[in-house]
Amino acid sequence: MSLISVHFLIFFIIILAVYYLLPGKVQWIWLLAASVLFYYESSTWQQFILFAFYIAVNWIAAVCLEKTEKYRKAVYRTALIADLGMLAFFKYSGFFCQILTAVIRLFNASFSGEFLNKIVRLSEAHAPARISYFSLILIGYLTDVYWGKIRAQGNPCKLVLFTGFFPQMTSGPIVSYEQMHSQLWGEKHHFHYENVIRGAERALWGIFKKLVISERCAMVVNTVYSYYEAYAGFYVFLAAFMFALQLYADFSGLMDIVIGVAECLGIVLPENFDTPFYSLNLSEFWRRWHITLGGFLRDYVFYPIEHSLPFKKLRRFCKNRFGKGYEKKFNLPANLALLISWFLIGLWHGGGWNYIFGVGLYMWAVIVLGEVLSPLFERLSKLLHINTNCFSFRMFQRVRTAVLFAFGLSFFRAQSLKDGFRMWRSAFSLFNPWIFFDRSVYELGLPKDEWLILLFGLLILIIVSILQQSGPVREKLHRQNYIFRLFVFLALFVMVINWGYYGMDFVAADFIYGRF
Amino acid sequence: MKNLCRAVIAIAAVIGVYCGCCRILTLKSEDGIKQMQSYYLQKENTVDALLLGSSHIYCDINTGILWDEYGISAFDLGGAEQPYWNSYYFLKEALKTQTPGVIVLDITIPGIRSVDLQPEVWSVTNLYGMKWNKNRLEATKVSTLDKKFEMILNPMNVMHTRYDELKKDDFVDENRSIDYKGFDYRETVVPFETRDMSDVTETMPMTEKEETYFRKIIEYTKEKNIPLLLVSVPFPVYRYEDAQKIYNYEFQIAEEENIAHIDFNKDGYYEKIGLDFQKDLADEFHLNVSGNRKFSTYLGQYLQSTYSLQDHRGDPLYASWDKNAAILRQEVAVHMLNEEQPEGEYLKDLQNDQFITVISLGREAENAEFISKNRDALKSLGVDAENPVSGELLILSGGKALYASSDEEQRQFMDLDDMKLLLVREGGPEDGKTKFFVNEEEHLLNSDGVKILVYDRQLKKIVNEAEF
To answer: Which of A495, A505, B57, B248 has CA atoms 20 to 30 A from the CA of A204?
Structure first.
């Protein structure tokens, strides 16, 4: 069930109405029923069983962790291996089988790989929907229990609700048990008009971003990426830039809907975006983009690696070898831990080298290079008398960051790493700035009128982002008169129903991050 | 309480805005939507002849002729490519407010396209004119595949992309009108062979779904005790393999059910009506101005004599049929004007009461062949054709001069009952510009010779633009 559908609207209105009529003690049961129904509706029964099995494994493991002292580590590791194993099997079997086939063919050129292909087909056909999200949520939960940060949830139904709470089940945010448990079943949620209105506003804003902005960008992006051999020069730059916008509007729009829907139910989900295009460098960008994924990898991957025994040894080795203060020049252990984290970020986005490179290793390389070269840039700025503390320089930094991000992201959209590089080779093979003047850009699937609507939509997005810098826009809006707020809501509504890409002439595209 | 009020206002505003957008964006086409919407505006129990079916109905049966010649208050409640399931629901809607003396059903669609599901585009035209009620819901369901049901049911899914083609008509909504009786005539002439289909006697069944709804229509009219007449309207049936066999099958059912029927493509009806497909067809399906006149005259006579339909001419309750007939007559007059050659009756046709004509004489006007060939006619319109003055501008209403001047700078504004006219000349005849505004619409009158622009007050549009 798509979040942008009449089905979902009806489903949600029923859920909402009954939810507030129920006593506090049973509200969570109603949410559980809704979440199970929501998940079941979008899966096959086999996928549903696998989802239940996944939760059962973690529930049993977490309960055992509390009950046993002796086998804690063994239980934790076994459960973790099971979690990661299932994730790897269902999500990455294609990727691993591809590598395995290539390796075997080095020794046996006639190896057909048919058996491996069968495994891939089997895993792909039965992969539980949104496994990338709920597996991380459960791993985080299990690890927190293991670390003693939280107590294991004795009621498996509550664990199902925590994992599969229906708005967040679509594509995050990746929540922690600590953030959610008291909200989901700890307190009675009373009907608050403001919550529902704010939630509806937020959801509508998300739909606007998705249907008016993202889907229009997609028209251009799909044209260029589908026939990339035919497009060179500035077409590639344009498509890469527009894909960054498309993904931002798509994913942040989805998050707005998810958070808005939860807000209507009185549940506050963590933010996943914080105007990332305002970032001055790539490191900051990733702290403001898909925040909960970054937070998960920081807490459950980066820190544990950094504090692991081999890394402690490595730090000691570096100190002895390079002397005190080596971290300032090049912090090898931290950067190595970062490399692993970035590799996993890339891999999480998809089993393909284009993901691992584009949203993983490339980002890591740019961030590390930025840090290493930072003293050089500072010296250069002083030498050239560049004022780095002014609006224009910050603007330059923001544009630079966006360009670096868009370049990496372009591999995410390409069919393969090879295709990504081919595109960029053709980008630099032709100097064709006239495409911006001779109406060629109108031939990319988006006519002139549609471009104007897209630019208008982007203008609204930019204005909101600017306002966001001095405090939440929604707070500002809610300080205004009711009539003004109603007018803003209706204006947004009219734009969505008139300019949105939905209905007969369009194939409603899934949310890009909804596929994980 | 305050919050409750705010919530109610917000929900009402959202619904209001949504409905407003739907109304603006909905197609205003004359292929089913306008017909149904206007039908709802008809006064109760005033429609004596209800004509149901596909475009054959609203292109071939001229309600103006039926009124002018027989005083029959008829309504063409057709829809493009209308299958029987849509005709059935149109019928159910129609009989809610009317009790016609006869229902005429066009049976030709199964012969042309025998399907269980029409393309969405035709479903839209056969559904979106209907009011939101059980019939529309059922009609939508039966017209669409399961997956498309919701898509079609919500008009915004189909219509919201029209935002870049909206026109004045979409906002002012002059679409639905009590004076509109469904007829939409075609002007073109496309010649075809005239071939009587009497030699085809075999039968061939239509699809099960079509037959089900065909029988449902028969059953429903029987239940309502209203006589039903099945007609196969005249068109080149021979171009469609097996079409006549399907019509024979339909008439066979009609025989069994004891329903009146006429196959106008057989038994010498072309001759009886006087139809000649060399000049009476607008395309391979529909009759043109000349064809529909002949056919409507014949059918009207049949309906009046067979079903004893009352002559309502002169009855104020039926004034809208008078208006409808006047509009249709005017459309024919416009058609004649547009067909006329300059040396023919063109200038005479301009004397139509509904025409506002603007004539502009350019610097070469005195040498224009048009002037020399039409001296007398021009003189009767107030133009000194012997010594035409370069730069002269005339405004005529029904052939009578409202304004004439040859000044270099001119600005003439006329606020007539139903329109505002502004004639502006800036600069001299050599390099000047002459503009003519009808309401907000701007037209350029610059020409070296003679330029004529004709605005029709009844049809509310420029109907002829000629340059000689």
So the answer is: A505
